[in-house]
Amino acid sequence: MKNLKKLIIITGPSGVGKGTVVKQLLDSKKDIWLSISATTRNPRMGEKDGVNYYFISDEKFKDMVDKKEFLEWAQFAGNYYGTPLSTVNEKIESGFIVLLEIEVEGAKQIKEKFPEALSIFLLPPSDEELEKRIRNRGTEKEEAIKMRLRRAKYEIASSDRFDFVLTNYHVDETVKRIFEIIKS
């Protein structure tokens, strides 16, 4: 992969606000492209195939893994997630900054393979706020919420492995700080 300075990883625990931060980044700057991940999970209400994710079967996902067609991939909350390599390369070669909004395990894989990629870990303001954000989604059952909260503790403990760690108190402030990091 060429020009890894144009590859930016945004990660953090589920519910930290990655999607909201990324949406505002994309709305603010036109030369940033959000990589679309493939997943085996079912779409949430309002999600569209090829826009939010590429929703694929377990069989297709495993075939892509075997063919080494992912920049990274991980299993999370019983489903597989991965970043298709071909589209990332195409966008970087076209002059875009490629933003990866991915789970912590996938972000670790990319940092190990491509240490030059810029990585930003988002922290929640508190454990209580994180739980509130996850519950307010209204998309998951109690056991899945508990699993995400347990997983968040593990992920937060690994935040020191990333280039920058930002607490997402307010989206506007977080986005401003990310733009400052990109410029530097």
TrEMBL record:
One Gene Ontology cellular component annotation held by this UniProt entry: cytosol
Q: Where does ATP bind?
A: G12, P13, S14, G15, V16, G17, K18, G19
Q: Which SMART domains match?
A: GuKc (SM00072)
Name the Pfam families for this protein: Guanylate_kin
Report the subcellular localization: Cytoplasm
Which is one GO molecular function term here?
Answer: GMP kinase activity
Q: What PROSITE patterns does UniProt report for this protein, alphabetically? A: GUANYLATE_KINASE_1, GUANYLATE_KINASE_2
Q: Where is the Guanylate kinase-like domain?
A: 5-183
Report whether tRNA-binding shows up as a keyword of the record. no
Q: Which InterPro entries match?
A: GK/Ca_channel_bsu, Guanylate_kin-like_dom, Guanylate_kinase, Guanylate_kinase_CS, P-loop_NTPase
Asked if Cytoplasm is a keyword of the record, the answer is: yes
Q: What is the enzyme's class at the highest EC level?
A: transferase
Main localization (coarse): cytoplasm
> What does this chain do?
Essential for recycling GMP and indirectly, cGMP.
Family classification: Belongs to the guanylate kinase family.
Q: Which UniProt keywords apply?
A: ATP-binding, Cytoplasm, Kinase, Nucleotide-binding, Transferase
Q: Mind telling me what this protein is named? A: Guanylate kinase
Give the EC number(s) listed in the UniProt record.
2.7.4.8
- Spell out the SUPFAM superfamilies in the cross-references: P-loop containing nucleoside triphosphate hydrolases
